[in-house]
Design a protein that fits this description.
Helix content: 25-40%
Largest sheet: 11 strands, mixed
Number of domains: 2
Order of helices and strands: HEEEHEHEHEHHEEEHEHEHH
Mean pLDDT: 95
CATH topology of the largest domain: Aminopeptidase
Structural class: alpha+beta
């Protein structure tokens, strides 16, 4: 386990983040102020989960210490949550969401992509498209296409914070980007990928430009990223999860298997009543397709 990569790194956590510890157990969290006033302890921004490590009494004690902490609001996302975790956070709201994982075989073996997706990749390349890993302006393309995709869904892309995070990641050897270009050389799909301490590589940021080529380009981009992750020794490609059923279906059709992500929320009643929209967004479960 390393605190120097992925969600546990200073590059991702920034000045407001920390690694909370109890014995051999630890997890990554960030402190923030909701609505600029209310102190909160949350899963690191843009992270799928808190990268909770450890087991047994130390893990239980860590969660109990966090529950006793001073922040008025706490939102923690945990992969592989246990009944003991839920008991340690007794009284918290528990929401079940999911991400999708594709198991990556050893480097010498072929990744088992679905056959129809392999055909789409070959078609994209045959029609003049290309895919590049870490092109010179790759992180800028990741930012641009990610924000475009968020805007189409009327979601806040937080461009200033995103720009700062991607700038940090651009200097890290455990992060890389992949960009797919159409036959005219226009970037039509991109993704930012990050290695985590648990041996997985997560599809952390992504987006596409609406065009005839973008669907095939996204397939080719993700498949190229999977090959890079495999070559770097990752045993899992984590698609990052999505509350959008269409995006979740795309990940499923790439071979991703559903993996539960438990969201635990400690939140006073007055907050729920004052900010019902935020509460609804936090407690929305994911839809399995």
């Amino acid at each position: 386990m390393s605190d120097a990569i992925g969600y546990r790194s200073q590059a991702w956590l920034g000045p407001s983040g920390t690694i909370q510890r109890a014995g051999d157990a630890s997890m990554a969290v960030q402190s923030t102020r909701l609505k600029r006033l209310i102190p909160a302890l949350v899963t690191p921004a843009w992270a799928v989960h808190c990268d909770l490590q450890g087991s047994g009494p130390d893990r239980v004690e860590l969660l109990k210490e966090i529950a006793r902490g001073p922040s008025a609001v706490k939102v923690l996302d945990v992969v592989g949550a246990t009944p003991e975790d839920a008991e340690a956070l007794h009284g918290w709201t528990h929401v079940t969401r999911h991400t999708r994982h594709l198991d990556l075989p050893p480097t010498a073996e072929v990744i088992p992509w679905p056959s129809h997706r392999l055909k789409q990749e070959r078609r994209f390349l045959r029609e003049g498209g290309c895919v590049e890993v870490n092109p010179g302006n790759g992180w800028q393309e990741v930012r641009s296409l990610h924000l475009q995709s968020r805007a189409r869904k009327s979601l806040d892309g937080r461009p200033e914070a995103l720009t700062a995070l991607l700038e940090n990641l651009s200097h890290e050897p455990w992060a890389y980007n992949v960009v797919a270009y159409d036959r005219e050389g226009n970037p039509v799909a991109s993704g930012g990928f990050v290695e985590l301490s648990n041996g997985a590589t997560v599809y952390a940021f992504g987006g596409q430009q609406r065009s005839k080529a973008s669907g095939l380009a996204s397939v080719a981009m993700v498949m190229a990223a999977g090959k890079v992750a495999q070559g770097r020794g990752s045993h899992v490609l984590d698609f990052g999860g999505s509350l959008d059923p269409g995006v979740d279906r795309f990940y499923k059709e790439l071979g991703g298997k559903a993996v539960a992500v438990s969201r635990f929320i400690q939140c006073p009643l007055w907050f729920r009543r004052m900010f019902p929209g935020t509460w609804r967004a936090w407690t929305q479960p994911s839809t399995m397709v």
